[in-house]
Amino acid sequence: MASEKRDKEEEEVKTDDGSPKIKPRPIVQLGIFLVAHSPVFSVVFSAAGVLALLILPLLAKNTYISENALMPGSARSMLSNRDVSDGSKLVKDIKNYWLNHEGQVQKLIGKYMSDMGAEVYYQKFHPEGNQFHPLHFFSGPDSYTLLDNVSCASYGVNVAGIIRAPRGDGKESIVLVTPYDFINGGDYEALSLGITSTLFSLLARVTWLSKDIIWLVTDSRYGDYRPVAAWLTEYHSPSFKVSDLLKCGELNTADTFRRAGTVAAALVLKVDGRSERFEDTLSIYAEASNGQMPNLDLINVVNYLAVHRQGFYVKVEKVVSLLSSSWLKIIGEIFEAVGKLARTLNPDWNFGIPAADYLEGSATLASSLYSQALGIPTGPHGAFRDYQVDAITLKISPRFPPDSKTRQHDFFLRGARLLEGTIRSVNNLLEKFHQSFFLYLLTSPSKFISVGVYMIAFALLVAPLPMVAASLYIEGCKALTKSTDNPTENLKSWKWLDAAKQVFALHLLGFIVTLLPYFICQVPGQHSPRNRSIMWGTTSSSLLLITFAIIPGCSPFSSRHHGTNWAVLKSVTISAAFIGLCLMSIINFATAEIGALLLVPTCLMAQPIKPALRSRRIKSLLGAFCSMVLLTIGFPVMFFAISKGLFGEAVVGLSLGGEFWTWLESLWAWKSATYLYIGMVHLPCWLLCLCILFHPS
Amino acid sequence: MACLVRSWIPLLFLQSFLVAIAFGSNEGEEFSEELLLKPLPDRKVLAHFHFENRAPPSNSHGRNHHLFPKAISQLVQKFRVKEMELSFTQGRWNHEHWGGFDPLSSMNAKPVGVELWAVFDVPQSQVDISWKNLTHALSGLFCASINFLESSTSYAAPTWGFGTNSDKLRYGSLPREAVCTENLTPWLKLLPCRDKDGISALMNRPSVYRGFYHSQRLHLSTVESGQEGLGSGIVLEQTLTVVIQPETTSVETNMQPSWSLSSLFGRKVVGSCVLAKSSNVYLQLEGRLGHESKNVDTEIEAHKLWMNSDFDLSLKPDRVIRESSSLLFIFDIDKSSDSEPFDLGLTWKLPSKWSCEQAPLHASRFLMGSGNERGAIAILLKATESQEKLSGRNLTTDGRCTIKANIFQIFPWYIKVYYHTLQIFVDQQQKTDSEVLKKINVSPSTDKVSSGMLEMMLELPCEVKSAAISIEYDKGFLHIDEYPPDANQGFDIPSALISFPSHHASLDFQEELSKSPLLSSFKEKSLVRSYTEVLLVPLTTPDFSMPYNVITITCTIFALYFGSLLNVLRRRIGEEERFLKSQAGKKRGGLKQLLSRLTAKIRGRPIEAPSSESPAAESSFLSSKLIFKIILVAGAAAAWQYFSTDK
């Protein structure tokens, strides 16, 4: 459109010599200007995009409690020593249980709950994992699929206790989850039960509850996630059909599964490992599937209470290897220097932060971005997000060994006070969490970057794509018009059709390759991940060859000079990549961001290698070399290996294939949209860039 | 002294006059106050206040009432209410521990918030109007937002599922209504002694509202005299049911807490209400205790009833009545005075345990599914322990033993229920409708006009362990101004009512009791019913906190859209170019052109001649066309706005 106009304008200028120039509208003028100078702008924009990403830790804002009703820490804690002794007694009893009896700790916990005045029930579930099914990829949590051949050999048992709010209406509830391995429970895990039972003993007495409290002790023999997901499935979409599972086992679970209204919020509590620091450490995990985050207010409340009331050292995950990277340190120092300089110029400009803070912030940001991009929940709280429940996992590491009795009392008191404060805040809430942010990245437990800020980096990165596409299209059209004198082929608007065919064919191939693992999994017999990855690789490459053979002009190796101009092909490829990235940014922003970092330079740099070699000029040779390096990095397996190396685990050789397969399998098992992105956007665009690289022009 | 006597005489005279009015034999208005106390198995105590006010039929229309509240009688006369019940409830009735198969629970276990139903004695066409007026009157009378029940989207007209078969019945409930003392005060105003004297003096606000459950109910019914020319009498029944946890110092968990009236309410009864015909306090002890002492003949054994190894009563009961499974102690509080206040206490000596009789099936209701698009409502009926005992009673004609259960449910219109998705599972096996569904009546909802209603009668086999009913729905979208405050909390689905038409609860007293209205109402057979939980459905809500952003973005989009649309409609690029070219050609005669333009502007505009060759005239013609288009678009927009907001 813009190009046509531009042509027209040019004609105009030529024909009317001496006459007043027809001024195009400013917006059109701007467009023409941008398209005309696209190489410069694309470099500027991409560099600005990367810079904006690096500058993000500087732009992080301090968190604040957005919802006034939460009022964290405004109420005095009501926990008494009696409650703490209840908790300690449970921990002691559990220990004795391990010494004397075998199994059935559930009964013991259940008895404690009912003694406190809660309604208790046991839930049996199947530990079967998630199965990949292409059709169910984006569907919600599927209803309880019942297997016909239910075996009693392995099943888990969750224990749940409900405290009814004395004057509440029972419309809402708050869930507390403590994973515990009932067969070989560790000492640290028992501490989490101690904290929760301390709290539960208090909550059973208080009169201020307006929401029911559910304490769920999950059977963590089958992982942390699966038992919680099973309980939630039973809570939200039970099957009324007959279940064989009820008949198995000696534990009488004939009692009803009880519910307590819409779940308002959930907290998962885990105690593990000893803290390396002097204080007790509290780690917060918040990422759920596909980069969904709980409301920031929930993290804020926990962070506020933990830091300002109970004196925990609060942290969120970070990429440790980045902390020692020198290049990031240099960048941090540069930013610090710039900040200092700015402050000397104007004392109001204090955006500079110390290099150490910058390093810390960017390591946390990288981890935040990575876990969101992966789309795999970082804990059992992820199961709640599927039901629009805000949930986080709190992992507490005490500074004392688990058998220290003297410290335990204080630890229970503080842990329970933290939970009490959080529950009290959520309990105050009349509406569900909605005030604060849902789209954010954390750079520290008390600093965040909201969507409005981190969007800029992505926008700058993808901005050159449409410009370059337009300019390439114009270029390609001109070249085509020159090369063919046939008037019928001179129809400008249909020039892109050949290239589009090729792009479409490769995207279709990408779609098929994405679905292949499902069929490979159906292949009878036990195969190692390595073999499966080889199967996948061979099938995919043969499919690629078939595609090249069937569709004429698709192959980069065809000697015939068949139509597709590489410029037009690149233009359409870039458009496809642009559309794919923009769509992905809506589904999972972090994936799109990391994907753009990889894909944008690759797409922009891709150009035929042959003319470059022929010309033997340094500039074009350098360009060809760059595009080859970018293409190598851009190959998903290669990138996987590199990122593994970054995280400190070097993988080489064929075992890489196996690792890659396992990684992808985990992606689709968690229904991560990143898997779809890799298969349906990244891979086809990468292949197209490869085609352009080896284009016979 | 003489002075004193002189001042006494008129006072005495006045008092005797007042008493004469109160007990005027010709009027026959009666008021009685009663209080039933009942220890509950889960260490709580139930206190049930019952006040009954009777106005007999009379032919004088504008008569003065002596005891009966005028506000109520005017209400009845104005809206021709035949029967009405209004309840304010906070907290949930615990069917497992507090009972579900006695008249007390089936009448007083009410859904959270406000519930109102009324039967009118007007022609069918005027029922809705009467209902609307009634809600407004009650709203003013009780300081509550009962007027929200006026809207046709919030009430329904049950035919048979509610238990009362009448086509002039209207039912509505407000689950979110917060119940507070401001609702209790107007309710107390209807009593002749208010809360100044008699049993109602016990209603210390903090202790009433500290309870786990409290339900204040007002039930009125008109009694037809049967005689020609006489009006109808009114019976006003006011009850307050409170469940209180007595404060206890004992650490033993299996020991029932001891209590007294003063420890429960912080007050004592000092004399009865002078205007009351009878004022009694009852203490009901349930379960094992009743069975243990079966034959009481002698004085000593009677004494043993209230002072035995299990428990002690602080006062001697005036009468002891045996019921099939419980003991009832009757106390008359007329004897109490300032110096000797009535302060009944119960002291437990031994741990004791008993259980309440439960309804044949325990009902619970919950939401299924996730997301903002659709979901399902499930009602789960579980057999209780007492079901086996009861099941023998209802044999059908073909010898099959069945339990009948009526389910009555109102769906707000934004819960768009698909009635064809109704699924019934009995003992975890799906049943077809014809197998278990005996009767069903569905009235679908209309968007923003009326709520949906589902009445169905299930006939389940007696040995049923569990039954589940599920029905799917879509969540609707509301208009921005239809959202209530705190819309992000979600929307309530009112409680469903589960009633068992073949089961009736009644207390079976072996002795004849004539006087007490409370006991006689217990003796009557009442339908066993239980309400399910209120459900909270999260609907999609717009971001109310950003109206400014929304307005700005909308305006920008509108401006861009209309701007480009007008541009496309108005501009002809080819024409423009030709015009510019011709203008460029004419450039030499600049002054001349300017002149011609000016003349065209002065002359051409009022005429608006389309034939004019002048380009300026052309453009003015275009602009008139443009104005016409703008008016057209604006008109369309206005019309759209008008029709969209009209509903």
Automatic annotation (TrEMBL), chain A:
Keywords noted in UniProt: Membrane, Transmembrane, Transmembrane helix
InterPro entries: Gaa1 (IPR007246)
Region (Disordered): 1-20
Top-level division of the source organism's lineage: Eukaryota
Pfam families the record matches: Gaa1 (PF04114)
Residues passing through the membrane, by range: 40-60, 451-474, 503-521, 533-552, 572-600, 621-642, 674-694
PANTHER family: GLYCOSYLPHOSPHATIDYLINOSITOL ANCHOR ATTACHMENT 1 PROTEIN (PTHR13304)
Name the record gives this protein: Glycosylphosphatidylinositol anchor attachment 1 protein-like isoform X2
Organism annotation: Camelina sativa
Designated gene of the protein: LOC104706232
UniProtKB/TrEMBL annotation, chain B:
InterPro entries: PIG-T (IPR007245)
Signal peptide coordinates: 1-24
Cited Pfam families: Gpi16
Source species, domain of life: Eukaryota
Keywords attached to this entry: Membrane, Signal, Transmembrane, Transmembrane helix
Transmembrane segment boundaries: 548-569, 626-643
Protein's recorded name: GPI transamidase component PIG-T isoform X1
Species, as recorded: Camelina sativa
